[in-house]
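Input protein
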Amino acid sequence: MALISRLLERGTRSLPDLQSLNRFIDELYGAHYYAVVDKLGEYQFIRLCLELIDEKYLANSDKGIFSRGLLFLREILLAPAGDGRQFKPDYLSQEKHFLSRQILDSFNDKTEYAQQRCIEEMCRGESIALSAFGDPGDFAAVDAGQLLDFHRGLLESNRIDVFVSGDFDPEYMQATFEGFINWERHEPDSVVQPRIKPFLGPAREIFEFQELQQAQMVLGYRTSILYGMEDYPALVLLNLVLGGDGQSRLFKHLREEEGLCYYAASHVEALSGLLFVVAAIEPATYHRAKTIVERQIESLRRGYIENFEIESARSLLQARLLGIAEDREVFFRFQLREGLVGGGQSPEKLWRSVEQVGIDDLVRVANHLKADTAYLLHGGVGAKIAI
């Protein structure tokens, strides 16, 4: 799918090269088009995005930009650059090379790399452990004809979500898109709901050596709580108390009091039931830093939570949730996640649930946290790890 997303940026049968594609985009008053592959939990998806000027700012003679844009997206999906039997082989060869380079370049972002490696070790055999970009070792076997057949299979049977933002008439937009997706389709495969993998224990520690200036510690916990569950609002609030911002437990105890890290934070993988603590530390302080994190989680389990911590986290979460509609990318991901779990929850509704969370709820959720995998990426000749 990662290769398909890149090939969908290379044009259509009538716009078979970047020169003709860019000329067409410029004719749409400098529109912006791109295709990306991404993941939410275990779900991989391709996203096509086309940004267009609002027609109300154009002269009557220039109306119709939106319709032209939709026809373009439809052609991208149904007639990508190629001869109709396969993607253009030379384009595929180029994109295999470019995607391999992109994957190798991500190796240089040690924070992202450490997070991905912890997930791989923690979730072996689970879909979430796979990168959205795939494995370069598999690219050689990908054939241009088979890849186009796979793409067409996705269009025929997989779920398609349409998101539109801007100033428009909803009824007109709905009618427009009903005519947009009019190719032959089978009943979409039902989306497999996320499943909770039970903690099997015991907790593991993984140490990996690379040449780098500072160590990256990632601690993975299984929560048994997925997005849409009754306890999810409490889990989100607990995460902010633990490592949400400069007022959090991790920042206060790891950085301010002990001076053990350059940064520290925690985040929740909503569709996978996972919580991660990440910190940049010196290798020699690994055991001390890990112990402090575990002590803070244990204190949350025992209910040692101050009201000001809860209200500070609640205030931060209110700003984030009620600000979702102002950020198109964040709003898109929120709505897509809702669709994947079959929900209809708005950010405002989720916030009302968060308002009802009390200390007892936080304690109950904290007791769901089970330490699964501790991962340390460290470097330096002769670096010592205190364990």
User: Anything to note?
Assistant: The mean pLDDT is 90.
